[in-house]
C-alpha cells in the first residue's frame, strides 16, 4: 500500500515518514511541491495521503487531491488548529497537530478508520 507524504520541506516529509509503521514507510513517496503532489497522486495512486496544511494554498491542494483520489484516506496535519474544521469539511479523513507525538498521528488515523496493521499487511 502506497503512502504519499506532502510537506512544505524535505525535512518535514522525513518527520512524517518517521511516524509511519515500517511497512508503510518502505512504500512511501514524498514531495514538497504542489504540482509534484498532484502528479504523484495520479501516477502512484496512493491509498494514504498525508498532507501539511500551512496556509490557504494547502486547502486548495486538499480539494484537488480529494477529487483525484476519491478512495484514498487523507490525513492532514498543521501547526494551526484553526484549520481542523475547514480541512475536515473539505474532505480530509483525519487531522492532527504537526508537533504532536506519534500517538497523536495514530489516533488521527484510527479516527478515519485507517488500520495500520492491515495496511502494512496489504502491500
Describe the structure.
With 123 residues, the chain is of the alpha/beta class. 48% of the residues lie in helices and 19% in strands. The chain has seven helices and five strands. It has helices spanning 10-19, 22-25, 34-43, 56-68, 84-89, 102-111, 116-121; strands spanning 3-6, 28-31, 48-52, 73-78, 94-97. It has a five-stranded parallel β-sheet, with helices on both faces. The protein is globular and about 30 Å long.
How are the secondary structure elements laid out?
Elements: E1 3-6, H1 10-19, H2 22-25, E2 28-31, H3 34-43, E3 48-52, H4 56-68, E4 73-78, H5 84-89, E5 94-97, H6 102-111, H7 116-121
Parallel strand pairs: 1-2, 1-3, 3-4, 4-5
Helix pairs in contact: 3-4
Helix content: 40-55%
Adjacency order of strands in the biggest sheet:
2-1-3-4-5
The H-level CATH homologous superfamily, spelled out, is Response regulator
Spatial gap, N to C terminus: 5 Å
Summarize the structure.
This protein is an alpha/beta fold and 123 residues long. The chain has seven helices and five strands; from the N terminus they run E-H-H-E-H-E-H-E-H-E-H-H.
Task: Note the main attributes of this structure.
Rossmann fold, alpha/beta, five-stranded parallel sheet, single chain, 7 helices, 5 strands
Amino acid at each position: 500500500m502506497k503512502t504519499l507524504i506532502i510537506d512544505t520541506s524535505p525535512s518535514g516529509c522525513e518527520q512524517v515518514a518517521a511516524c509511519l509503521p515500517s511497512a508503510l514507510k518502505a512504500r512511501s513517496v514524498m514531495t514538497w511541491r504542489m504540482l509534484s503532489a498532484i502528479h504523484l497522486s495520479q501516477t502512484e495512486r496512493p491509498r494514504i495521503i498525508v498532507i501539511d496544511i500551512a496556509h490557504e494554498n494547502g486547502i486548495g491542494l486538499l480539494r484537488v487531491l480529494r477529487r483525484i483520489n476519491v478512495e484514498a484516506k487523507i490525513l492532514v496535519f498543521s501547526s494551526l488548529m484553526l484549520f481542523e474544521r475547514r480541512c475536515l469539511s473539505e474532505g480530509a479523513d483525519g487531522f492532527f497537530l504537526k508537533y504532536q507525538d506519534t500517538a497523536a498521528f495514530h489516533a488521527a488515523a484510527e479516527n478515519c478508520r485507517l488500520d495500520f496493521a492491515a495496511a502494512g499487511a496489504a502491500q
